[in-house]
Amino acid sequence: MEIYATTTEQLKEEIGELRQQIIELEKEKTERRKAEETLRENQRQLFLATQIAQLGFWDLNLANGDLYWSDETYRHYGYKPQEFVPSYEKFRSIVHPDDMGFVQERVDAALNNDAEYNIDFRFIKLDGSIGYIHTQGMVISRDETDKALRFIGTQIDITGRKEEEEERKTFIRYLGVRVKELRCLYGITGAIQKLKTVETIFRDVVELIPPGWQYPEITRCRILFDGQEYVTEPFDETEWKQTSDIVINGKRRGSVEVYYLEERPELDEGPFQLEERNLIDGIASTLSNVQIKEE
């Protein structure tokens, strides 16, 4: 009887321990299931967040050269998600040639020296137009010799923002040019209103004109009228010239000439802007009216 009782007690204990182990396993399974559900939810939220923010992700395995792009990264460059297997060479072909040297320099600095990789660069769209990318990345794995093994990062298309910045800069430059033109015209009007002689007005005007042009430091002016010459000192006649006739009663009596002493990029009329054409024509017309009144 004692042996039977002992065996029964031991069996009860073992059953109890087994039941407790089962409870612990079920609890562990429940916690693991909750953790997996939480992980999936976090991944879903992260995926939605990257879609909403249009944030791309890339992952470069430096050990074997494999490159991963998220769907949004493909879209940034104008491709369908997973349209092809990305590679670093493909990336290099997309980056604007004038920016690739800078991009490679920053990549090398990050891989070799853990330097910050946080840059903007231009890329060539499929239609040949220019886009802009902002990207950030970091090395997350190195071998025992400190050689980089894995380089990951995010990127976002900032083309719209860059275009807005360029439009704003263009508008500010436009306002600056218009202010210079107005000062030029105001100065000329002031010289005329002082009831000076025509000769004195012309001498004042050739000094007032250069600051109204895009490159005043290399701008020279000459007014020719009835065989007389009035110039900005020191004066030099060059091939980069803009001119407008002084016409009185239908007859050409002279001209207003503007010269650049050095070559500048081609614009609307040689190195000159369309607005400068309008300005020199306006000055010539004003001087024509002055002479008519004098006569």
Helix-strand layout with pairing:
Elements: H1 2-53, E1 55-61, E2 67-69, H2 71-76, H3 88-94, H4 97-113, E3 117-124, E4 130-142, E5 148-157, H5 159-193, H6 198-208, E6 219-225, E7 228-231, E8 240-248, E9 251-260, H7 274-294
Antiparallel strand pairs: 1-2, 1-5, 3-4, 4-5, 6-7, 6-9, 8-9
Helix pairs in contact: 5-6, 5-7
What does this structure look like?
- This protein has two domains: 52-157, Beta-Lactamase; 173-294, GAF domain (Beta-Lactamase), CATH 3.30.450.40.
- The protein has a five-stranded antiparallel beta sheet with strand order 2-1-5-4-3. A four-stranded antiparallel beta sheet has the order 7-6-9-8, covered by helices on one side.
- Helices cover 51% and strands 24% of the residues.
- A hairpin with a 2-residue loop joins strand 6 and strand 7 (228-231).
- With 295 residues, it is of the alpha+beta class.
- The mean pLDDT is 85.
- The chain has seven helices and nine strands, in the order H-E-E-H-H-H-E-E-E-H-H-E-E-E-E-H.
- Helix 5 (159-193) runs antiparallel to helix 6 and helix 5 runs parallel beside helix 7 (274-294).
- It has helices spanning 2-53, 71-76, 88-94, 97-113, 159-193, 198-208, 274-294; strands at 55-61, 67-69, 117-124, 130-142, 148-157, 219-225, 228-231, 240-248, 251-260.
